[in-house]
From TrEMBL:
<protein>
    <recommendedName>
        <fullName>GH18 domain-containing protein</fullName>
    </recommendedName>
</protein>
<dbReference type="GO" id="GO:0005576">
    <property type="term" value="C:extracellular region"/>
</dbReference>
<feature type="domain" description="GH18">
    <location>
        <begin position="25"/>
        <end position="295"/>
    </location>
</feature>
<keyword id="KW-0326">Glycosidase</keyword>
<feature type="signal peptide">
    <location>
        <begin position="1"/>
        <end position="19"/>
    </location>
</feature>
<dbReference type="Pfam" id="PF00704">
    <property type="entry name" value="Glyco_hydro_18"/>
</dbReference>
<keyword id="KW-0732">Signal</keyword>
<dbReference type="InterPro" id="IPR017853">
    <property type="entry name" value="GH"/>
</dbReference>
<dbReference type="GO" id="GO:0005975">
    <property type="term" value="P:carbohydrate metabolic process"/>
</dbReference>
<dbReference type="GO" id="GO:0004568">
    <property type="term" value="F:chitinase activity"/>
</dbReference>
<dbReference type="InterPro" id="IPR029070">
    <property type="entry name" value="Chitinase_insertion_sf"/>
</dbReference>
<dbReference type="InterPro" id="IPR050314">
    <property type="entry name" value="Glycosyl_Hydrlase_18"/>
</dbReference>
<dbReference type="GO" id="GO:0008061">
    <property type="term" value="F:chitin binding"/>
</dbReference>
<dbReference type="GO" id="GO:0006032">
    <property type="term" value="P:chitin catabolic process"/>
</dbReference>
<dbReference type="InterPro" id="IPR001223">
    <property type="entry name" value="Glyco_hydro18_cat"/>
</dbReference>
<dbReference type="InterPro" id="IPR001579">
    <property type="entry name" value="Glyco_hydro_18_chit_AS"/>
</dbReference>
<keyword id="KW-0378">Hydrolase</keyword>
Length: 295
């Protein structure tokens, strides 16, 4: 029921984005696009003052080039960058690309075409860099040669190739999820870690922190696993693992105490940005816990 996934992510930065903030703690926040409409100045749950770096999950690969997933995405998200930087002048905004890299990696011409297509969109809207989220090279039956091809793609963006692959600790940002996963229990009487399940819960098994609080308010039983230092909860045939203020505080403290320069959050819009958890008193409680470690 519990599993670990390693994400292949490369941050390609314009104008030395990471180096510009190397002397201070970094809070790197992902934000998932996909809304068709909203009435607020910024998309719901997006507070640029809580992050040093913001990564929009909002581009795909079409005909070997970087494109917005929807024609409305530039207006809904990209064009909000000036307002976000007005609210937080030190903010760096990157564009995440998580499309199908199979064709891109096939030849050197395709890799160059992909790289060249990224610069116009980044510069047009004022992005500070590009996040390549490839899940995953040479995985699930894909060619083993993709690992090498993906490295070649990165060299198109970075001549130093991550400083000859000897990346220093000062460049490592450790990620913390602010979402949960739900599963359907086979037997409601068996609800511990490793209990048998027969599938994911609603919404593909993803649970926001607002939903976590609603579940807890509806008499779910919370258990804190001392070995893993994370909570889970259950009721009837539903089992949910998640992060809360206690577990986030433990993780952020570990990252800080081990000398890592920053924390990545996936994703801002999974936090309780509307204040459900405490009756509207506190918004984005998990991000605010993380921000305490910037002091």
């Amino acid at each position: 029921m519990l599993r670990t996934v390693i994400y292949i992510v490369a941050l390609i930065c314009l104008n030395s984005v990471i180096a510009d903030t190397a002397s201070s703690e970094k809070i790197v926040c992902y934000y998932g696009t996909g809304l068709s409409n909203y009435s607020t100045p910024l998309p719901p749950g997006l507070d640029p003052t809580l992050c040093t770096h913001l990564i929009f999950i909002g581009s795909t690969i079409i005909d070997g080039q970087i494109k917005p997933p929807k024609p409305t995405d530039p207006q809904m998200y990209y064009e909000k960058i000036p307002l976000m930087k007005k609210l937080n002048p030190e903010l760096k905004v990157l564009l995440c690309n998580g499309g199908n890299f199979n064709g891109v990696l096939a030849t050197s011409q395709n890799r160059s075409r992909f790289a060249n297509s990224s610069l116009p969109i980044l510069r047009k809207y004022g992005f500070d860099g590009l996040d390549l989220d490839f899940e995953f090279p040479a995985w699930n039956g894909l060619p083993k040669s993709q690992k090498h091809s993906f490295s070649l793609l990165l060299t198109v963006f970075s001549a130093n190739y991550w400083v000859l692959k000897g990346m220093p600790k000062s460049k490592v940002v450790v990620g913390i999820p602010v979402y949960g996963h739900s599963y359907k229990l086979v037997f409601k009487s068996l609800h511990g870690v490793h209990a048998p399940s027969y599938g994911r819960g609603d919404n593909g098994g993803y649970v926001t922190y607002s939903q976590v609080c609603k579940y807890l308010q509806s008499n779910f039983t919370r258990v804190f696993n001392e070995r893993c230092q994370v909570p889970y909860m259950y009721k009837d045939h539903l089992w949910i693992s998640y992060e809360d203020e206690e577990s986030i505080n433990i993780k952020a403290n570990w990252i800080k105490s081990h000398g890592y320069p920053g924390i990545m959050v996936y994703s801002m819009n999974y936090d309780d940005y509307s204040g459900v958890c405490d009756g509207g008193k506190t918004k984005n409680p998990l991000l605010k816990i993380i921000n305490k470690f910037r002091l």
